[in-house]
Amino acid sequence: MALGLVVLFLILLPWIVDKYSLQLIIYTMTYIMLALGFSLCWKGRLIRVDLAAYWAIGAYATGMLMTKAGWSYWPTILVGGLLAAIIAWGVGSLTIPRGGLVFFTFSMLVGLLIQQTLAASKSFGGWAGIESMPPPAIGSFVFKGKTEYYFLGLFLLGVNFVTYYLLYNSKIGRGWTAIGSGVGFAKSLGINVVRYRLSAVVLSSFFCAVSGSYLASYQMYIIPDSFGFHQSMMIQMFSLVGGLNNFLAGPVVGAAVMTFIPEYLKVTAEIEPILTAVVIILVIIFMPLGILGVVGKVWRSSLFVRNR
Amino acid sequence: MIGGVYALVASGFTLILGVMKIFNFAQGQFYMLGAFVAYGVAVSLGLPYVVALIISILSMGLLGVLVYIGIIKWTYSGFFQTVMATFAFSTIAKQGSLLTFGYREKVLPAVVRGIIEVSNVTVPGGKLFIIFVAILVMVSLHYFLKLKVGTSMRAVAESMDVASLQGINPTRIFYLTMGIGCGLSGIAGGLIAPVFCASVLMGERIFIMALLVVAIGGMGSMTGALLASCVIGVVESFAYQFVGELNLVAIFILLAVIIYFRPGGLMGKPLPIPTAE
């Protein structure tokens, strides 16, 4: 019942909100896909700071294949995702056995390396990036309005969300939960920690690249500046603000809140990062489990639940 | 030359990481602020350069302690939380100094002039001065860690609980570590200011390089940091001649090769890892 209402609301959404809000919603959906990837790795207590780089891989795969090779849009999503997964597998299998801190450091360095390489090499367009990409199309139906893109994004996000939901409720998801409550504990249960963590990293990289392809097709241009280290940290902030222990709903809430509120406050671009930073510190001190943590606490302590 | 500066920033970083288990994102910003303090003291107030260097190391050490008291102490609930908190502070420092100083680069007049010639190789005196001071600071840091205070610092790095059982106050050691680590960044900034310019955006680049130094040299190893910063400084400069903008890629390839053959870095053994092992 509740699920049906949510789906109906999401389908009717483009006709409820204005064009500007719809654009923000489209950006929010790409952020949600990234933040879900971060939460997936955080479930296995791996902190990654390179998600924006895999975002860039997806975007560049789509951009290069569509403009230079003349492919249609749909196979490029898959190619970008697989490319990101392969790179993540290479990096992960080298660093994950060495522990969380080494993986953290290397994810940061690799993320910077990918961004710098894309920006520095002339064949990828340099700092100017790629522009004038054709819109995706099915047969003669061309995606050109915001509403069509909204439904494309909703489909991709839905696939991502359902995949993660099914995984979290399966054997492998319970394995990640066990690693999250203690590595030694997980090992004693006979869980191959390295392999479980590696699968989390590879899977989240795949969906990050899918999100990148979607972003590239919506913007129709890519510049390397938008995939920097700062973006990777913003993604972590979404998960942190939404709720670190809510692996599916946390990123959704966090990304929505942190995209819409600064946009409507309308502060200047120089001051906005300072406000964001202050918000991060306050959230860590006063709401360590994020918005959903506070909501859950209020819900549990309310009269309604106590009487049942 | 640039290797000496990398070594200073990286050893401050690795000290804080080793003793406090905090991944200090703001290390590069302390370096940037140190350069600006040196500029302010030497140019605006007109004091001699040596005084400027000393003031930049002291003020950055004090700022580090203040950051620990003001921010990090309250967010010390987990590794990820401190990562986000130091990142937030580095954003505040960068944007704040952007608003105060602007994008304009500040140029400090060269302090040590003249060229020294050693059998066909000419070296500018200013760069030799940096190398000299960097080596001096590194050596004194090495002997400092052998003192009683330094020993208790290493004890805290090994295990906080056992150290406090031995009568060491970890909080005071944390203040000291934060002060020394950030002060090292500050003196690096003060050293680089007369050779390059002081700009707001210099903090991020140096932080990446310091991180590379720590990754190659081995986490928590001072000797490794010194060795790796020499290697990286040389490779970076040479690679720039051949591949230009892609010189970072050359360093990363070097890093991958080293990590493949020596997992703990050049000199290091792996630290006790703060996040779940």
Can you walk me through this structure?
The complex is a heterodimer of chains A (308) and B (277). With 308 residues, chain A is an all-alpha fold. Chain A has a domain at 24-227. Chain A has 14 helices and two strands. In chain A, strand 1 (137-138) and strand 2 (141-142) form a beta hairpin. Chain A is globular and about 55 Å long. The mean pLDDT of chain A is 85. Chain B has a domain at 2-112 and 122-202. Chain B has a two-stranded antiparallel ribbon with strand order 1-2. Chains A and B meet through helix 5, helix 10 and helix 12 of A and helix 4, helix 9 and helix 11 of B.
Kindly provide the radius of gyration of chain B, computed on alpha-carbon positions and rounded to a whole number of angstroms. 19 Å
Task: Output the structural class of chain A.
Answer: mainly alpha
**What is the helix tally of chain B?**
11
Query: Ends of chain A: how far apart?
Result: 22 Å
Mass-distribution shape of chain B? globular
- Which range best describes the helical content of chain A: under 10%, 10-25%, 25-40%, 40-55%, 55-70% or over 70%? over 70%
What's this entry about, in short?
The complex is a heterodimer of chains A (308) and B (277). With 308 residues, chain A is mainly α.
Task: List the main descriptive attributes of the protein structure presented here.
heterodimer; A: 308 residues; mainly alpha; globular; B: 277 residues; two-stranded antiparallel sheet
Explain the layout of strands and helices.
The complex is a heterodimer of chains A (308) and B (277).
Chain A: H1 2-16, H2 19-43, H3 51-67, H4 73-95, H5 100-120, E1 137-138, E2 141-142, H6 146-168, H7 171-181, H8 183-188, H9 193-219, H10 229-242, H11 249-265, H12 272-286, H13 290-301, H14 303-307
Antiparallel strand pairs in A: 1-2
Helix pairs in contact in A: 2-6, 2-9, 2-10, 2-11, 3-4, 3-5, 3-9, 4-9, 6-9, 7-9, 10-11, 10-13
Chain B: H1 2-20, H2 27-44, H3 49-70, H4 79-101, E1 115-118, E2 121-124, H5 125-144, H6 148-158, H7 160-165, H8 170-192, H9 202-217, H10 222-243, H11 247-261
Antiparallel strand pairs in B: 1-2
